[in-house]
C-alpha cells in the first residue's frame, strides 16, 4: 500500500486534474447531451479545472465568468459544481486575499442563481443550502492547506532530527576513533622507542611482540567502532565493548610501554550498564594515554574507580612534571573526555596537582545516562 501511495505522489498533478475533469464530464454531460450549446457551456466550466492547481485564482475567475455567461443565457447546468471545486482549490492553494475575493464572487453568484432559479417561497432556504455548500468547500480547502503546512513542518523537523542524529553519531565515532588511534599509537611508539635500549634480546622481542599485539588490538577496536556502518561486519559482534574488566589489560599495556600503572577498583561493577563501562574505560584510557605522551618514561600513574549503586567515580593521577599547554582544555582528548562524562551527568576536572603531577576526576550518574550511546 505504501508503495502504491509513493507511486501516486509521483504522478503529475496535471494528470490527476485531467482525470477529475474526465470524471465530472462523465457525470454531468449526459444530462445535457441533447443540447450542443449546453454542452459547450459545460465544457467551458469543466476544462479550466485541468489547470486548477497551477493557477487556482485564474481558473476560479474563468469558471466564474463562464457561470455568469450561463446565467445570462438562462442555462441551469450540472457542471456548475465546478464552482465549488474551483473555490476549494483557491482555499487550498492560493492566498487569503484571493480566497476572500472568491467567497465574495461566490456569494454574488449564489444570490443571482437563487433570484432566477429558486422555487417560489424557497429563496432563503435555497440560498442557505448553497451557502452551506460553498462554506464546506472553502473550509475543506483551508483545512487541506493547514494539513499540508503541518506535514511540511513535520518533515522539516524530521530532517532536522536526522541531521542532528548524524552529527551526534559522527561525534561519537570521532571520539571512539580518537581514543583508539591515539592510545594504541602512543603505546606502539613508546614500545618502539624502548626496544633498541633493551638489555637483552628477550626483552627486545617482548617489546616487538607487544607492538604487534597492540596493532592487532587497534584494528579490532577500529572495526568494532565502525561496525555500525556496515551490517556485514562480523568483528564488531565477535568482540564485546571494553569495560571496567578490561582496565587491568589496559594497565598491563601501559606498564609494558614503560609507565608503571596502579589500578584499584572498589565496589561491584557487574550491574553497571555496558555503555557506562565503556565511558569509564575510555576516560581512563585517554587520561593514561595523555600521561604516556606528555611525561617522561618512568612516570607513575594511579587509577581509582569507585562503583556505587548510582554513581561511578573515576580518578586518574600521575607524578609527572607540569605539562603546561599540552593538556589544555581545548585539546581534542580533554574535550572528548568532557563530552563522555557529560553524557552521564558528570563534570570532568583535569589539571595539575599542587604537589606536582596531573589529576583527572569525574563522577558519572548512572541514572542520567543509562541509555546514552557513547
- Count of distinct structural domains: 2
Helical residue percent band: 55-70%
Order of SSEs: HHHHHHHHHHEHEEHEE
Tell me about the biggest sheet? 5 strands, mixed
From the alpha carbons, calculate the radius of gyration and give it in angstroms: 38 Å
Average pLDDT confidence is 81
- Residue stretches low in confidence (pLDDT < 50, at least 5 long) are 1-8, 231-237, 325-330, 370-374
Classify the beta-strand content into a percent band.
Answer: 5-15%
So what's the overall shape? rod-shaped
How far the N terminus sits from the C terminus, by CA atoms, comes to 38 Å
Counting DSSP H or I runs of 4 or more residues, the number of helices is: 12
Q: Give me the count of strands.
A: 5
Strand order of the largest sheet: 1-2-3-5-4
> Structural class, from helix and strand content?
alpha+beta
Structural notes for this entry:
- The chain has 374 residues and is α+β, with helices and mostly antiparallel strands.
- The protein folds into two domains: 12-159, no CATH class; 243-374, 2-Layer Sandwich (Heat Shock Protein 90).
- Helix content is 62%, strand content 9%.
- It is built from twelve helices and five strands.
- It has helices spanning 2-9, 13-28, 36-46, 56-73, 82-93, 96-117, 123-194, 201-226, 235-238, 247-256, 274-294, 332-342, and strands at 261-266, 301-307, 311-318, 349-352, 358-365.
- The chain has a five-stranded mixed sheet with strand order 1-2-3-5-4, covered by helices on one side.
- Strand 1, helix 11 (274-294) and strand 2 (301-307) form a beta-alpha-beta unit.
- Helix 7 crosses helix 11.
- The longest helix has 72 residues, at 123-194.
- The two termini are 38 Å apart.
- Residues 1-8, 231-237, 325-330 and 370-374 have low confidence and may be disordered.
